[in-house]
Amino acid sequence: MKAYSARRFFIIPFLGVTVFFIISSIVHETTLRRGSEALARDQLAAAAGMLRATTARFLEEGKNPAEILDFLATVPSIYFTALLDEGKNVLAWNSRFEGYMPVSFATVTPGDSVIIKSPAGRIYTTCLSFSVAGRRKYSLFLGYSLVALDAMLFQSLRNTLITLALILLGGALFFRGLSALQADYVAKAAEAEREKKEKERYREISALTSGVAHEIKNPLNSLSLFFDLLAAKNPSGFEEDIGLGKKEIRKIADIVDRFSQALKPLKLNDQKTAFADILDGAISSLKPEFPALETRVTVSQGKDIRLKGDRELLTTALVNLMRNSLEASADTRINIGLRHQAKSVEIDVRDSGPGIEADKLRQVFEPFYSTKANGMGVGLYLVKKIIESHGGSIEAGLHPGGTVFRIKLPEA
């Protein structure tokens, strides 16, 4: 599955849910506002009717209009009041907002009701007409504050926005997690596919190499027997040639063995072993090829560290690693350093050779790839195979004096 397609598979439903929630929230808020305003109008209209009756009764009792409005101002949520006669003359008025009246009484029409905006918020205004003793006509102008209603609507809107933000945040985190899982799955699937192809490739190479080794070793054995018989007859003047021939046969046999060893499956015999023993075994194996090897190899630290693994295979890995460095130059020197890490040991094998080109560092562990003119390309591949079979890792790098191979292995 491509990463883009998988992300689109996850993000389209999430965006659809988000858009649906936004639209439904807008519809909900609009419906809530309209319903609340309609309910407020009905309730305030009923309250206005009761206040009109109260005002008419007070006027019939002969109370002063200003006193009547002061009493009405004690009713919660009343923002302002005004009492007008039939000529629209203001008999008295009262306002909670520093004497501010948000409308002109000249435009007042009895029976009107409207919501207006003021410095104190939205105000529901209504004008009611009534008669006293059947003769005099009055108009009662009332303004109700909708601050409480607006606060409730604002709280509802805020809760909706908080919910939307949480949905977006949760969706983003969820999408990020799914994307990470999907990317990890895609990477592992690709890695598994590569490993499958590599295994198939190595299986074919192994089968081919085994067949070639078998076909080569049979005539080599015949040649070796021939040289043994020839040496037994002791022909004068041919001793050196016979010795050279047997040496070349051993070299060919060694090459065949190295190819076979690099490609055959590994069987580990795990045990605790000191690195010093592994190093001594490697030096003993390489000494016939490289005289005075002890003077060219030094251990800067950690020689007494113990490792967990197959001693023979780890020795083989170190032999191939050191041989790779020693063959690079006749005066190459090797320094080995070990240090403890978290539940592992890190081994640096540094040489003073000519180094490897930076763009070829990744390829040096591939089978049959070599930077040397006469290299076979199996030594470092076998090293990597052995290290990884122990649950470790190896990488090649450069340092100012040459090449460094960094190995990580489990600690005993």
Descriptive account of the structure:
The protein has 412 residues and is α+β, with helices and mostly antiparallel strands. Among the domains are: 3-145, Beta-Lactamase; 267-410, Histidine kinase-like ATPase, C-terminal domain (Heat Shock Protein 90). It contains 7 helices and 12 strands. It has helices at residues 3-60, 65-72, 147-232, 239-263, 275-286, 311-326, 379-389, and strands spanning 78-85, 90-95, 113-118, 121-132, 136-145, 271-274, 297-301, 306-309, 334-341, 344-351, 393-399, 402-410. The strands form 3 sheets. Strands 2-1-5-4-3 form a 5-stranded antiparallel sheet. A 5-stranded mixed sheet has the order 7-9-10-12-11. A two-stranded antiparallel sheet has the order 6-8. Helix 1 (3-60) runs antiparallel to helix 3 (147-232) and helix 4 (239-263) packs across helix 7. The longest helix has 86 residues, at 147-232. It starts with a helix and ends with a strand.
Summarize the model shown.
With 412 residues, this protein is an alpha+beta fold. 52% of the residues lie in helices and 21% in strands.
CATH top level label of the domain at 267-410:
Alpha Beta
Give the terminus-to-terminus CA distance. Answer: 41 Å
Average pLDDT reading: 78
CATH A-level architecture of the domain at 267-410: 2-Layer Sandwich
- CATH-defined topology of the domain at 267-410: Heat Shock Protein 90
Secondary structure: number of strands: 12
Largest sheet: 5 strands, antiparallel
What is the helix fraction of residues, given as a range? 40-55%
